[in-house]
Design goal:
- The chain is mainly beta.
- It has no helices and 28 strands.
């Protein structure tokens, strides 16, 4: 099947060179994605220069150097997210409607196997230290841990409420997960598969998005009460909060620029930076498009990719690309 990019607009920005001083973010272009208009997480493989777009019952693959669709992973019913294990040559799709993951060959994009999980697997994370995949099962209040090589389920972790976004922290040997309906973050030890921290996030409520600065031991939580919460991963203390836009569903952290991005469904991205020890400041509110609530970051170009469309309207999905200008 010959899949091509439906819309390739003229680039409004040029990529900033390595070592440049970055200014504000602006629009670069959009990429049309055919098929179902429903979508969820975006994932980037920086080494392979690929963006994975989970939507409907498929995952489309975009070459982020050419900004063109180069393949499709089919038959992923109700897919929410896609985790990448580059060293294994495998990817893992959380098939929410089928209560399973699909194990995918990253070269052929063919499904190698499926593995049963708890009900409605949503967020999905690959933990490289032990080579395990974690699915966070939204209607089961649990996490399923799967050996990425064998495909065997090695643990099921009961969670204290409804899980949302999660990240792996290999340096700390932990997985962090938002418990959305309890206003908590849990820390899971990757060796014992036990919860070793339960951290309240007040004044944040409804934590939906999560990004990690592992070097400085910081979690950034995008919350549904329009707050970004900065948490210390060593003891779970809330260090700072600031206002963000409405309808956040994803956040990312750029280690090189020290910027935190929160995608808000209202049609903005809140861009913040840590100021000194324990404070945050918004440096830009970037206009995007209504319903652009999930995003991914390319750490090489520092561009961000957002998804927006009209749910249940075929061929309405667009990937919106924004990038930094070079400060002079």
């Amino acid at each position: 099947m010959n899949l091509t990019m439906l819309c390739y607009c003229s680039m409004a920005l040029t990529a900033a060179p390595p070592g440049a001083s970055y200014g504000s973010y602006g629009f670069v272009q959009e990429i049309g994605v055919p098929g179902p208009g429903s979508w969820d997480y975006l994932s980037i493989d920086p080494a392979a220069r690929r963006l994975y777009v989970a939507h409907g019952d498929q995952v489309d693959v975009i070459d982020i150097d050419r900004n063109a669709i180069v393949g499709t992973i089919a038959d992923t019913p109700g897919v929410h997210g896609f985790a990448i294990a580059r060293e294994l040559g495998r990817g893992f799709a959380s098939d929410g409607r089928a209560a399973q993951i699909s194990i995918v060959d990253l070269n052929s994009l063919h499904t190698l196997a499926t593995v049963a999980t708890g009900t409605n697997p949503d967020a999905i994370v690959f933990e490289p230290t032990r080579g395990e995949v974690y699915t966070f099962n939204g209607r089961a209040n649990s996490a399923t841990v799967i050996d990425a090589r064998s495909g065997e389920v090695v643990a099921t972790i009961d969670l204290p409420g409804k899980p949302e976004f999660a990240v792996a922290d290999p340096a700390a040997g932990r997985i962090y997960d938002n418990i959305e309906d309890q206003n908590l973050v849990v820390a899971i030890d990757v060796r014992s598969h036990a919860i070793v921290g339960r951290w309240p996030i007040a004044p944040g409520q409804g934590p939906a998005a999560m990004a990690l600065d592992s070097t400085h031991h910081r979690l950034f939580l995008g919350c549904r009460n329009q707050r970004l919460v900065m948490l210390d991963t060593r003891d779970g203390r809330v260090l700072a909060t600031l206002p963000i836009g409405q309808g956040v569903d994803a956040s990312v952290f750029d280690a090189a620029t020290q910027l935190v991005f929160s995608a808000n469904g209202e049609g903005t991205v809140s861009i913040a930076r840590e100021q000194g020890r324990g404070s945050l400041a918004v440096v830009q509110t970037l206009p995007t498009r209504a319903r652009a609530r999930t995003l991914a970051l390319d750490p090489a170009s520092h561009r961000i990719y957002l998804a927006s469309g009209t749910r249940n309207v075929p061929d309405s999905l667009r990937i919106l690309v924004y990038g930094p200008t070079v400060a002079h």
